[in-house]
Amino acid sequence: MSVRTIGKVILSEDSIISVPAIQIIATVPTDPTSKKIPISLSICYGGEISTNDSETNKTNMKQSKLMSYYYALPHRRKEDDVIGVPLLDTNNDIIRDMTKRLALLMVKKFNKPCYVALSIASESDSNSLASNQIFVIKKCIDFVVTVLSGPTTI
What domains lie within the chain, and their CATH numbers? Predict the structure, then answer.
C-alpha cells in the first residue's frame, strides 16, 4: 500500500471572486490502477494564513475546527452507484452537503474509495461557504486530477 501526500494552499487572488484561503491536503495511491487504496482529502476553509516560514518556505493555515468527515465508496455490483456515510456529522446543512457532495463526486470520477474531511476556521467563514461551495469543490477535484496525473510537487 503505497501512497503519497501533497498539499496546496489556494489564496483569494487565485480566483476572480473573493474567497477565503483554502488549504487542501490529498493522500492518493501511487499506483493509479489501484481500486482499493482510498483517496483522502483534508480541506481547511478560511482563516488567516501565517507568514511563510523562512526555513521551510511553506505557508501554513491557522488552527481550525473539524466540522465534517465523510466516507464514500463505489458500489460493488452497480458501477454507477456510490455508497456513503458521514463519519463526523454536523447540524450545518451547507457543510454536510459540501462534504458529502465532494466525496460522492470523487468516487464517481476516480472509481476509488474516498475520505473527505472539512474544517472551518471561524463562523464567518462557515457563512461564506454557501456562496463558494462550487468553487471549492472544483478546486479540490482539479487538485486531485493533477496529483493523480503524476507530478510529485505541486
Answer: 3-148 (3.30.230.100)
